[in-house]
Amino acid sequence: MTKDKHKQKIKTKELPAARQLYLKKIRREKIKVAVLQAVILVAFLGLWQLLASTGVIDDFITSSPLRIAKMMTQLLSQDIFKHIGITLFECIIGFVLSGAIGFAIAVGLWASETARRVLEPYIVTLNSLPKIALGPIIIVWMGAGIKAIVTMTVLICVIVTVISVLAGFLACDDGKILLMKSMGASKIQIFFKLVLPNSLPNLISVLKINVGLAWVGTIMGEYLVSGAGLGYLIIYGGQVFKLDLVMTSTVILCVLAALMYLGVALIEKKVASKR
Question: How many whole angstroms separate alpha carbon 55 and alpha carbon 35?
Fold first, then answer.
């Protein structure tokens, strides 16, 4: 066996070991991050409970983890799952509709530079408009029900979706687009073969942003018109000074939003693994 072949054989044996060390390092880093996140959460809850128990803060106003746990137990024996289901349904419908509508509009604006130049000032203006100001109009148009809440969610998410998705489309390398055009590719082929695959990371980022905006829109809509849902419980709790109910509903919202975000993160992981 020559010297070069002997070195090559040693390298092939060392490669799996090096990869295993790298994977172990990645796993340790993930565990470290998860542990630190858990420590921060536990420390925050412990400090909150300590300040409430010692009277440093008024637990009637700020509530406390123990009071929230007690209220959660009471709600579990009542119809809390009905309120959770209603809010979750409204949020998911608004999230999906705003994503689909925003994506379609962004595709149209990418395809037509004239339309993009004409509509850009209007899109910027609509994005800066406080959507809550349209609340009374939405109620008159859509009625006092789920339609009005979903409409509010869509209005809050759709403009951000259009702007972000369009920015991802326009970020595609012009040189690659010119190359495909020189090879006789149509606009549809350029979009599906180049622009869309290149924009996938940006699309996932838009979904992550829309998770938060969809919950904001849903709760804002329930503030305006709702007889059920977590937003309704927050309003009701504030009106009758049941602040434990307000804080408990807020905690449930945080958990639901986190689970929805994790769902988008799983989609991101699957998309990244296929690329």
Answer: 30
